[in-house]
Amino acid sequence: MTAWQVSLTATAFFVDQFPPATVPEIAFLGRSNVGKSTLLNALVGRRLAHVSGTPGKTRSINFFEIKSPKLFRLVDLPGYGFASRGQQERERWQELIESYLLNRPCLLFAVHLVDFRHGLLENDRQLQFWVTELGLPMQVVFTKADKISKGKRKATAAAYRKNGYASLYEPFLVSGTERTGIEELRTFIEEAVTEAGH
Ligand SMILES: Nc1nc2c(ncn2[C@@H]2O[C@H](COP(=O)(O)OP(=O)(O)OP(=O)(O)O)[C@@H](O)[C@H]2O)c(=O)[nH]1
Ligand SMILES: [Mg+2]
């Protein structure tokens, strides 16, 4: 696969800072600390998104523009479910994410990141319900696969499948820190952009 050329095109704290909706986008959603920024960095092969052990690191919407050579954007959204954030902060999150998800014609689908150690928690289910209502397809990606021993991964994935989730295809299993499953996800994203006809 050809290397991705990547640049951070915009960091948005407010709607008027979103770049024009002229390029197909794939949004990365998930709880705080699930590994969104780490996975994005692994996918693009550069440390562009800020990673932190403290949940709530990403507070803005970050638009990464990729040339593969097809042009598309990966969009890093602030995480949800960070309890120690105040009510006001949560409302601001909701407002910013809503204004993005509700009115983004170039948005192809969302990648829903879920911690492989926990599976879908209550707020992950709420997110899935809400995003499905919006009519936006989701692809589940389990992160932090390295935290579960190899011998237990199959059974863990099977248990989550039994509990159910909304996902376009079988969930991907990745580790952003150990860089496993990254190539498969890169290929999937490239194919999705190509199929969308852009
Ligand atoms: N073991 C392991 N740790 C990971 C992995 N991905 C991320 N982490 C760690 O999890 C913490 C949070 O990672 P981030 O990438 O900042 O998470 P985020 O989802 O962007 O978090 P917010 O911006 O707060 O929403 C960091 O300490 C990362 O090093 C992974 O695949 N495996
Ligand atoms: Mg982040």
Overall description:
The structure is a single chain. With 198 residues, the chain is of the alpha/beta class. The protein has one domain: Rossmann fold (3-Layer(aba) Sandwich), CATH 3.40.50.300. It is built from five helices and seven strands, in the order ββαββαβαβαβα. The chain has helices at residues 36-44, 87-101, 122-133, 150-163, 182-195; strands at residues 5-12, 25-30, 61-67, 71-76, 107-115, 138-143, 172-173. A seven-stranded mixed β-sheet has the order 1-3-4-2-5-6-7, sandwiched between helices. The longest helix has 15 residues, at 87-101. The radius of gyration is 16 Å and the shape is globular. The two termini are 18 Å apart. 34% of the residues are buried. Magnesium ion (MG) is lined by residues 36-37, 57-58.
Distance between the termini: 18 Å
Strand order of the largest sheet: 1-3-4-2-5-6-7
Q: Domains counted in the coordinates: how many? A: 1
* CATH topology category name: Rossmann fold
- Give the C-level CATH assignment: Alpha Beta
Instruction: Report Rg.
Output: 16 Å
Brief rundown of the structure:
The chain is built from five helices and seven strands, in the order E-E-H-E-E-H-E-H-E-H-E-H.
